[in-house]
Design a protein that fits this description.
- It is a single chain.
- β5 (94-99) and β6 (106-111) form a beta hairpin.
- It contains four helices and nine strands; from the N terminus they run ααβββββββββαα.
- The N and C termini lie far apart (49 Å).
- The chain is of the alpha+beta class and 203 residues long.
- The longest helix has 11 residues, at 192-202.
- The chain has helices at 20-27, 32-40, 179-184, 192-202, and strands at residues 58-62, 68-71, 75-76, 84-85, 94-99, 106-111, 117-122, 132-135, 140-144.
- Bound molecules: zinc ion (ZN).
- The site of zinc ion (ZN) has 8 residues, from loops.
């Protein structure tokens, strides 16, 4: 039995990693491009990302688990073609790892909750931090100022691409009660209909 409480960041967000099934549910909602970047450490082409030119006030979060990562007030034009931030929303929300791929040693940054690949960190940023967090737009979700940022991992998040609502909605949700459960519990074996008759008959 563990007595360590769920880790909460300084800004009040739970940092407990999603379970493997939860992560699978989240990853299934990603576009192939978002999947490539966040789950395979991919890098989007420069000057193409959807958040590069974003100037609105708001917060940028992990596209996979929606943990807030960066503020628009810390965004700056680095000239690199990737969205760049000189500070994090909360230092605990971004994890740093040494990355020796690509023939050089860089510092990879990943989501502090779900470990999604975000981009890299460099030491040539502007004051006051001198840090340049170089992001893939595809790894980010943007909340405009005033939009609610979920504290917990939203496990029923809509896709980024609008989906058509299926025209045919099943009339009934199948309710199959496994026999083994009925046999194993004290539940009365009578069907619901009989129970209803008994109820009305008794009144
Ligand atoms: Zn995440």
């Amino acid at each position: 039995m563990s007595d360590s409480p769920a880790e909460i960041s300084g800004s009040g967000f739970p940092l407990t990693a999603p379970s493997s099934s939860q992560l699978q549910q989240l990853v299934e909602k990603l576009t192939p491009e978002q999947h490539h970047v966040t789950q395979k450490s991919g890098t989007e082409a420069p000057f193409c990302g959807g958040h590069l030119a974003e100037k609105s006030a708001g917060v940028y979060g992990c596209v996979v688990c929606r943990l807030p990562l960066f503020r628009s007030s810390d965004k700056f034009d680095s000239g690199t073609g990737w969205p760049s931030f000189f500070d994090t929303y909360d230092a605990q929300h971004v994890t740093r790892k040494s990355d020796a791929s690509g023939g050089m040693v860089r510092t990879e940054i990943t989501c502090g909750r779900c470990d999604a690949h975000l981009g890299h960190e460099f030491s040539d940023g502007p004051p006051p931090t001198g840090i340049r967090h170089c992001l893939n737009s595809l790894a980010l979700h943007f909340w405009a100022e005033g939009e609610a940022i979920p504290l917990e991992i939203p496990l029923e998040i809509p896709r980024e691409i609008p989906r058509e609502i299926p025209r045919e909605i099943p009339r009934e949700i199948p309710r199959e009660i496994p026999r083994a459960i009925s046999d194993a519990t004290d539940a009365p074996a009578t069907p619901d209909a009989d129970l209803a008759i008994a109820w009305f008959g008794g009144g």
